[in-house]
């Protein structure tokens, strides 16, 4: 699909400086631009590339003034980075705008769906499933009994959504994600083994949530595992049974959250963080990568380490840790001096 500079400027509410009929059909980095590509300049560090980029159209800030001649057509906007993000979103929506039911696929007679459904081949829609308008289900997806999925949600290839799960509107469930598998519940028995504790709850995912590839969110033992509005989960994250993640919290890859832990709103959790079960993490908490959290955390704390401590304390302690061999030598020398005196 091709767009002219004028069409893009109208979408972004920007101004064209150059050829309004310049056409693009691809996107590129500014340093890798080629004819027919759209790019952007937001970071001044890349400013030199605008004078030799081969991209046909470049989005720039309105404050940008060329210091020499540029060949690329400019579209001037208030915020080039935000504008390019908007174009990416628009491009993605056009690319993913598929409609229709491919065969072979299975849709239960008791399932219902809204307008503009896309259902990819080899997908399975079980009994009493309810799908909203503009839902996109890509190939090889399994959706179990009584699942509800809201408007404009996309479920990419190979995802599995177990029975009773409720997913809101405008969500993205990436490939390989598993929503609603049994929580890890076992009780020791008299024979030295373990009996399975039935997990009869569900998963609730509210609106505008992104779930990364191969991320797993377990169903609750009783009640619900809840992912609140606006949460962004990276790839390969484990969310255990009865966890609650507050609104607009972001969690990076390979983090694990154990059962019944409550995470507050607007938290930022780095990669490979381990969070113990049955604890509460407050709002606006920042946890650095590879930290271990085993206690309740108050609002607005920033933590690092395992077990995690305040970031400022960690940095101070790490200075001494790096100097530990010198400190030990000094102590030994001092003891020898005192012993000989």
From TrEMBL:
Active site as annotated: 241
Pfam families recorded: Hexapep, LpxD
UniProtKB keywords: Acyltransferase, Lipid A biosynthesis, Lipid biosynthesis, Lipid metabolism, Repeat, Transferase
UniProt domain UDP-3-O-[3-hydroxymyristoyl] glucosamine N-acyltransferase non-repeat region: residue ranges: 22-89
Transmembrane segments: none
Catalytic activity: a UDP-3-O-[(3R)-3-hydroxyacyl]-alpha-D-glucosamine + a (3R)-hydroxyacyl-[ACP] = a UDP-2-N,3-O-bis[(3R)-3-hydroxyacyl]-alpha-D-glucosamine + holo-[ACP] + H(+)
Cellular-component GO terms for this entry: membrane
InterPro entries named among the record's database cross-references: Hexapep, LpxD, Trimer_LpxA-like_sf, UDP_GlcNAc_AcTrfase_non-rep
Database matches in Gene3D superfamilies: Hexapeptide repeat proteins, MurE/MurF, N-terminal domain
Pathway membership, UniProt: Bacterial outer membrane biogenesis; LPS lipid A biosynthesis
GO biological process entries: lipid A biosynthetic process
GO molecular function, one term: N-acyltransferase activity
Family annotation (SUPFAM superfamilies): Trimeric LpxA-like enzymes (SSF51161)
Domain of life: Bacteria
Name of the top EC class for this enzyme: transferase
Biological function: Catalyzes the N-acylation of UDP-3-O-acylglucosamine using 3-hydroxyacyl-ACP as the acyl donor. Is involved in the biosynthesis of lipid A, a phosphorylated glycolipid that anchors the lipopolysaccharide to the outer membrane of the cell.
Subunit details: Homotrimer.
Similarity comment: Belongs to the transferase hexapeptide repeat family. LpxD subfamily.
Protein name: UDP-3-O-acylglucosamine N-acyltransferase
Record organism: Pseudotamlana haliotis
